[in-house]
Design a protein that fits this description.
The complex is a heterodimer. By secondary structure, chain A is an alpha/beta fold. Chain A is about 45% helix and about 20% strand. In chain A, strands 2-1-3-4-5 form a 5-stranded parallel sheet, sandwiched between helices. The longest helix of chain A is centred in the middle third of the chain and has 14 residues. Chain B is an alpha/beta fold. Chain B folds into 3 domains: about 45 residues, no CATH class; about 210 residues, 3-Layer(aba) Sandwich (Rossmann fold), CATH 3.40.50; about 40 residues, no CATH class. A 7-stranded parallel sheet of chain B has the order 4-2-5-1-6-7-8, with helices on both faces. The chains are: A alpha/beta, B alpha/beta. Chains A and B meet through helix 1, strand 2 and helix 2 of A and helix 2, strand 3 and strand 4 of B. Strand 2 of chain A pairs parallel with strand 3 of chain B, so a sheet runs across the interface.
């Protein structure tokens, strides 16, 4: 059993639902997966704004931000999130999870999203994606 | 240069100027422990401004976060910017944590509020080891009050008393009876009682049980020499009902601490508590290493072996 008190730097991830989207089953599963991988997950809940996520990420000194999107708003909301982080001079990688059509994945990555996780992504992939974007 | 890579002195300088990103980073370093954390605690200690520290504790689901959230709405309206340390448990199995207190605060928190979620990282007692250091950072950065919301506690996790100036204990209707109310532990340490979810049946019974418990403190002669009696307040934190009165009671308690001279006693006790924790943590590390080094297969009883290891440890 790893001793939780002696830690290599703990990875802290802010998870949120951005905008009007009440589908939170997936993000709660992701929160649990990351917790079980030894990370500290700050879950902000539903109906967050880019401003509330920026404020939380700043106060929590987040290593990564995970946004769950199931309302087809990702091409609007993801760039808005990145712009808000830029404006606040926060250099924190953003991972999008949820329903993102294959064609849009590349668009998001080019925009500056650090990783995109689709439905059914295995737990190991979710954990690896967060570790990768935090390290790089 | 990104704030993340700034040296500690520069981070502290920026935090003192009100840079929130720097405050966030300092808290991370304090949580991580080690030499950076010690240096930050030292620098912040030199800049101490004497913020009032309010502890909010109670059982899981009692409404600590919701009450705290309402205070983060109310206080900025009164012109004060609170900082909140919201503590949640780390998993003893993986060290991970889900920190969910912000959910009940973010949407209503007023301008200037700073909320930080903290995981216990293996520390028992209802707080994290880093809490005193984090409070220092907030205090030096000019936040007043600093509110510490503990993990959901049972009966004996009362670390918050040593960490705070004013301890608020949140209970709910139907939480127990007159016998529960007189058991040792959590209820003995309250400076203020809040019966939250007071719109539910049984609130007045709970109030009566708590009043009776306080009456018996009087009978035993355990009540405050200066005659301070913890007030019992009723709230429905989800809609903010009664929350302003809670804050009035905190201010009244602070006034009592100042006028009775107990504020300095509590502050001295707090320093002692922090020093004790740090010494114990260091000794724990040394002791574990000494036990690892010892030959536990020696034909001594565990009692003698333990005494031998302790002797050796203290001699070194």
């Amino acid at each position: 059993m790893p001793d939780p008190s002696t830690s290599s730097p703990k990875i802290r991830v802010v998870l949120a639902k951005l905008g009007l989207d009440g589908h939170d089953r997936g993000i709660k599963v992701v929160a649990r997966i990351l917790r079980d991988a030894g990370m500290e997950v700050i879950y902000l809940g539903l109906r967050q704004t880019t401003a509330s996520i920026v404020a939380a990420a700043e106060q929590e000194d987040a290593d990564a931000i995970g946004l769950s999107m199931h309302n087809a708003g990702h091409l609007t909301l993801a760039p808005a999130m990145l712009a808000a982080l830029d404006e606040a001079e926060l250099d924190i990688p953003v991972i999008i999870g949820g329903i993102v059509p294959d064609d849009d994945v590349e668009v998001l990555l080019v925009t500056g999203v650090a990783a995109v996780l689709g439905p059914g992504a295995p737990a190991a992939d979710v954990v690896a994606a967060v570790r990768d974007v935090v390290v790089s | 240069m990104s704030v993340r890579n700034l040296p500690v002195e520069e981070l502290v300088a920026r935090a003192l100027e009100g840079n929130r990103r720097a405050v966030g980073r300092l808290l991370t370093l304090v949580e991580r422990g080690g030499t950076d954390a010690d240096e930050i605690a030292d620098l912040a200690h030199q800049q101490a401004r004497g913020a009032h520290i309010v502890g909010i504790t109670g059982a899981p689901g009692a409404g600590k976060s919701t009450l705290t959230g309402q205070l983060t709405r109310l206080l900025p309206e009164m012109g004060v910017a609170p900082a909140v340390l919201a503590v949640d448990p780390s998993s003893p199995l993986t060290g991970g944590a889900i920190l969910g207190d912000r959910i009940r605060m973010d949407n209503i928190a007023g301008e200037g509020t700073f909320i930080r979620s903290v995981a216990t990282r293996g520390h028992a007692g209802g707080l994290a080891l880093s809490v005193p250091g984090c409070v220092r950072v907030f205090d030096a950065a000019g936040f007043d009050p600093v509110i510490i919301e503990t993990v959901g506690v049972g009966q004996v996790e009362v670390d918050v008393v040593a960490a705070a100036d004013t301890t608020v204990v949140v209970v709910n209707p139907g939480w127990g009876d007159a016998v529960q109310a007189n058991k040792a532990g959590l209820l003995e340490v309250a400076d203020i009682f809040v019966i939250n979810k007071a719109d539910r049946p049984g609130a007045s019974d709970t109030r009566r049980d708590l009043e009776l418990m306080l009456d018996l403190s009087h009978v035993s002669g355990l009540e405050d020499d200066s005659g301070y009696r913890p007030p019992i307040l009723m709230t429905t934190a989800t809609d903010g009902e009664g929350v302003a009165a809670v804050w009035d009671s905190v201010l009244a308690h602070r006034e009592h601490l100042t006028s009775s001279g107990q504020l300095s006693t509590r502050q001295a006790a707090r320093l002692r508590y922090e020093i004790t924790n740090r010494v114990e943590a260091q000794l724990h590390v040394e002791a574990s290493a000494a036990i690892d080094r010892a030959d536990l297969s020696e034909a001594l009883s565990p009692i003698k072996l333990a005494a031998q290891i302790t002797d050796r440890l203290l001699r070194d």
